[in-house]
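[09:14] KT: can someone run the structure on this one? pasting the chain below
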Amino acid sequence: MSRIRTALVALAGLVLVAAPASATPGPEPAISGQAGTGPASAEAVDIPGHALVGYLHASFANGSGYVRMADVPAEWDVIDLAFAEPTSPTSGQLEFNRCQAAECPNVESDEEFIAGIRAKQAEGKKVLLSVGGANGQVRLETTAARDAFVASAAEIIDRYGLDGLDVDFEGHSLELAPGDTDLKHPTTPVVVNLIDALRALNDRYGADFVLTMAPETFFVQVGYQHYGGGTGADPRAGAYLPVIDALRDQLDLLHVQNYNSGPVMGLDDQYHTMGTADFHVAMIDMLLTGFPLAGNPDNTFAPLAPEQVAIGLPAANPAGNGFTPVPEVHKALDCLRAGTNCGPYQPHGTYPNLRGLMAWSINWDVYHGDEFAKAHDAY
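[09:31] RB: done, structure tokens below
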């Protein structure tokens, strides 16, 4: 997610259990496993029907000002701390550096920050570590990088007593190597190692661990047209899909960034442009209907459950390209949840249990008078 332009996480009405993830004493689990297998644990996480998810600029101000953890408005149900970044793109070693006073004059102490996290968790909120962002390229090219990723992510989660992890890999973090075209059996190291790393973290913390993802449309829905390395298309097209598919039983929320995007072809084989209700309906319907990759009916991304999916939005116009006005967001929700107020795109079903909204960011929303949280929280 771009620190300057991107807009994230809001899920309309989430009430969550406030138990931070805690590691079980003893040796770490082995980091191994084949893509597409793994225990189902997503259902064990208590995430209620409709929720707002928001990114908190914890390590930078980004022109919108710093918001102390204790001052995060009550409407936000999932708070993603942006961002943990690697020491180098291929090290896997994550660091989470809180904003310095020179950039964020009102930044609180570590003790106050942790106390704020505990207070939010006591209110039933989830507080997650978000990894990556536009400036944090994460390429787990080796098993050593994979292991470093797991160990360093766990250290940060334990240090602050967080509830889980948000994966916001962008740029060139993920791609598919030439010949890697089988969704169920990926072979590209950066993909396979990420799958194994996320499984290891899920196994380490157990059923209460919250796992969310915030890919861009290019890495997900564009896979309907182009998928796999060596096909003549950008090898990043659809590259998040094998990760989502392999982790679908552990994945609590997928909120694709429906912004900072070019036109994307929907299941009607028409291009849809961001910033409109129709774009959101078409993009979400793809996730909840499923779709063949690059037109191959034998290589299909199966639908996710509506409870696993939220719409990713900018919280305000400066937060990201493709800002969607409040009435258009509500039109999209009406269409997806009830089949009413639809535009040209007609979804393949109604999804009353659609989880809600994601927005970038809490800071940008506070800067603009909390319009996003107030307008969408009760809708």
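[09:33] KT: thanks! The chain has a mean pLDDT of 89.
[09:34] RB: yep, looked fine to me
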